[in-house]
Amino acid sequence: MTAMKSHSAHWGVFTADWQQDQLVIQPHPNDRDPSPILQNFTDALRHRARIAAPMVRKGWLERGPGADRMRGRDQFVQLPWDEVLDLLAEELRRVKELHGVESVFGGSYGWSSAGRFHHAQSQVHRFLNNVLGGYVRSRHSYSAGAAEVILPHVLGPLEQIARRNVTWEQIAVHTDIVLAFGGMALKNSQTASGGISNHVERDSMRTAAARGCRFVCISPIYSDLPAESKPEWLAPVPGTDTALMLALVHVLVSEGLHDRSFIDRYCDGWPAFEDYLLGRNDNVPKTPAWAERICEIPAEQIATLARSLVGKRVLVGVSHSLQRAEHGEQPVWMGAVLAAVLGQIGLPGGGYNYALGTLAHYGRRNNLAGPAALSQGVNSIQNFIPVARITDMLLKPGEPFDYDGQQYNYPHIRLAYWAGGNPFHHQQDLNRLAEGIRRLETFVVHESAWTATTRFADIVLPATLTLEREDLGSTATDPTLAAMHRLAEPYGQARDDYSIFCELARCLGGLDAFSEGRNAHEWVEHLYARTRLAWKDKGVALPEFEEFWRVGQLTVPQGEDDGGILRAFRDDPIAHPLPTPSGRIQISSPRVDSFGYDDCPGHPSYLTPVDVPNAEYPLWLVANQPEGRLHSQLDFGAYSQSLKLHGREICRLHPDAAAARGIADGEIVRIFNARGACLAAVRLDAAMRVDVMRLPTGAWFDPVEDEQGRMMCVHGNPNVLTRDVGTSSLAQGSTGQLTAVQVERFAGTLPAITAYDPPRTVSRT
Ligand code: PGD
To answer: Which residues line the pocket of ligand 1, CB cutoff 6 A?
Structure first.
């Protein structure tokens, strides 16, 4: 065996090498809880799902650009690289000349890979800015679309509230009670953007619980907190956490148990909220009895829980999942209000931390210096969409939309360019998305594998996987700086996104502006040199690049566990005001109120959702993150496959709900609603609410069409069922977490899974 080579991925820093043609991966030696998702790499490199050569959709090649109902159904023609790049350069020129770059959508949302340089979104944005002259972008993320907009109005920027706040170290030592709204599932904290060398969540929860810290899992699904935390379980109706929080606050306020001096000193806008809480304007006091009718948690249990919080170091956590739902802004805001009423914000291990436990790089100390990033250039185009509004943009060009207090118009997009994302994984209501994508004139995708998105594309360019190239791995909250060595030659004719864009830039006459005269290895050296300079400014000497590359991994020093802006604010609210309009915690917000949105009023409120179970579709579907992969990435990999049943994604159903429908464990079921249907294999699970079923995201979309052309996914992709509406007029975030469905035993002939087979190719006629 040769020496192990260093690499890094979203699931951890590792070393790897080949033993008898088998890729062997060893997680970082410091990693106390390494992620098995790393094992998806072992058979991915040469899998039949990889894209071997540039491809052009037959219909596009024959009929030229234009709306086409054949997208997603057509055959592909393999072309030589030179020819396909000339065709694409010509098409980019045509669209720019005829319609301007404001008709090019380059949002290209997606996680792609962990390296600092070959980060596909950065590459595509840099290309579109520096070579084409700009593009329509998207704002925010599917992860935190609602939180990213509401938090700055009421507490501070997402980055500060999610990532520079309470740490796992503090929880292990200080916290008495963790109220985990939406849980803190270890399946989620396997992942960190950029890669980390140690997963600390499981151990930290175990240590805290052993010390006597009480963890309360507030979720319809018990496994959203790990056994190590010895969780108590409250299972409210999905989407009703805000009502539960309001009732907790009602008990505290009506019994005089709230921290009045904290509210006076640190908060703004209490009276308007108190009027709502006590029902002075609407005659509806938000009592535990009121909340019980909404969230189905007994009033007495709510009151007991509220009283038990007083005088304790309490941490209120709100997960990403809670805000990926109708009115998702409300639990994010109300969680902060609950922590403020308890007087806990800014204390070590106490207060409020949005999204702690959601990703492995949250809840950690920050490094003294951050890693250098690739510049994306300057975008000349102001137009944007909130990221999850992509289908609306494609179907409603020119129409107005609300966002964060202003009204904008959707641009008319002719060409969409995607690298490093899978909209047919991430977007809601995939039948609707397909309608939108079919209206484009041209759809270009760089991908390493034949995802559903590539099958809807006109031009498909094969991209390398991270293991096939060199890069720099680093995250601002992990002390390991990792050389990412090449572990395999590119598959077939695959190229790095960077070299694809260099060739395109050459065709369009903008190579220097894009490459600055460097090849990929020189860029990695350059980014390391800039990172090294940043560390030098902090008085830390990192070795020369050659030495770094030889040793593979460096340990860098981290900063104090200082609690970020919330601690500084608590210590001295005059010297360190919050970046909110009042400089304080906005219990209510005159600014948000001034927008006049019924679906996001000026104080946190419980608002009844529209998409709820009914006689026809009586179950809640929770479409959350999967255990065996990150989103849809490497779904064909060994570990992801090992968690399927009969080759299908596994959905979980309560035994009573299954019995009522004559469904047995292990059978194939059809899950459906008015928007679509999918098949999945069922596992019975008593540790969830009886009216809830769970189908995680990420099974590759594998559609069969009915006579009307509506697609059913035979593999288990829940986004064929989810509803494509924004969280509210404020943030317009994704609402993919929850929808109403029915389920039945599937009695028909089981269609084969074809999602990993390359599409049909034909020779050029
Ligand atoms: P991924 O599967 O990670 O999903 O959506 P996202 O699009 O990020 O897609 C990344 C793609 O990039 C993969 O297909 C991978 O092959 C490709 N890729 C990786 N490396 C490279 C590279 O170097 N070059 C190129 N060209 N391609 C590369 C995720 C999104 O889904 C997110 S972040 C969330 S939080 C949402 N979660 C939910 C949810 O909870 N529920 C529902 N219903 N829907 C969701 N959608 C969202």
So the answer is: 110-113, 118, 120, 141-143, 324, 419-422, 425-426, 446-449, 451, 463, 497, 623-625, 630-633, 697, 718-719, 722, 736-737
Give per-residue pLDDT as tens, 134-143. 999 999 999 9
Residue whose CA lies nearest to ligand 1 atom number 20: 112
Q: Does domain 145-367+562-595 have CATH number 1.20.58.100?
A: no
Closest CA to 736 of 749, 747, 724: 724
Residue 764 pLDDT > 90: no
Residue 306 region, left (φ>0) first, then alpha (ψ -120 to 50), else beta?
Answer: alpha
CB atoms within 10 A of CB 666: 12
Q: What is the distance in A from the centroid of ligand 1 to the CA of 121? A: 11
pLDDT in tens, 42-75: 999 999 999 999 999 999 999 999 999 999 999 9
> CATH 3.40.50.740: which residues of the chain?
55-142+381-470+487-512
Residues of the chain with CATH 2.40.40.20: 619-745
Q: Which pair of tokens denotes residue 148?
A: 């990213």
Atom of ligand 1 nearest to the CA of 419: 26
Taking CA atoms, 500 is separated from 126, 274, 289, in Å, by 13, 58, 61
**Tens-digit pLDDT profile for residues 162-199:** 999 999 999 999 999 999 999 999 999 999 988 899 99
> What are the residues whose beta carbons fall under 8 Å from the beta carbon of 593, sequence distance 6 or more?
272, 601, 602, 603
Helix 147-154 to helix 329-341 angle (10° resolution) is 40
Distance 669 CA to ligand 1 centre (A): 26
Q: Is the pLDDT of residue 2 over 70?
A: no
List the one residue out of 671, 664, 666, 668 whose CA is nearest residue 618: 671
In residues, how long is the chain? 765
Which residue's CA is the nearest one to ligand 1's atom 30?
Answer: 426
CB 456 within 8 A of CB 437: yes
Give the Cα separation of 556 and 7 in Å (integer).
17
Three-state SS across 160-202?
HHHHCCCCHHHHHHHCCEEEEECCCCCCHHHCCCCCCCCCCHH
CATH number of 619-745: 2.40.40.20
* CA separation for the pair 692, 620 (Å, rounded): 5
Residue 144 CA: which ligand 1 atom is closest?
35
Among 288-302, 327-341, 700-714, where is mean pLDDT lowest? 700-714
Q: Which long-range contacts (CB under 8 A, 24 or more apart) does 682-686 make?
A: 682/650, 682/651, 682/652, 682/653, 682/658, 682/743, 683/645, 683/650, 683/651, 683/652, 683/653, 684/652, 684/653, 684/654, 684/655, 684/658, 685/652, 685/653, 685/654, 685/655, 686/654, 686/655
Residues of the chain with CATH 3.40.228.10: 145-367+562-595
Q: Which residue has the tokens 């109706």?
A: 237
Residue listed under structure tokens 């050296």 = 525
Is pLDDT of 1 > 60? no
Give the nearest ligand 1 atom to 631 CA: 2
Exposure string of 319-350, with b = 16+ CB inside 10 Å and e = fewer, is bbbbbbbbbbbbbbbbbbbbbbbbbbbbbbbb
Query: Looking at the domain 55-142+381-470+487-512, which fold is it?
Result: Rossmann fold (3.40.50)
The closest of 754, 704, 760 to 55, measured between CA atoms, is 760
Mean pLDDT of the chain: 97
In Å, the largest CA–CA distance within the chain is: 80
State the amino acid at position 670 in one-letter form: R
Pairing state between β 177-181 and 471-473: unpaired
pLDDT at 357 > cutoff 80: yes
Closest C-alpha among 264, 268, 217 to residue 244: 217
Yes or no: say if 354 and 318 are a contact pair by the CB < 8 Å rule. Answer: yes
Hey, whose CA ends up nearest to atom 27 of ligand 1? 420
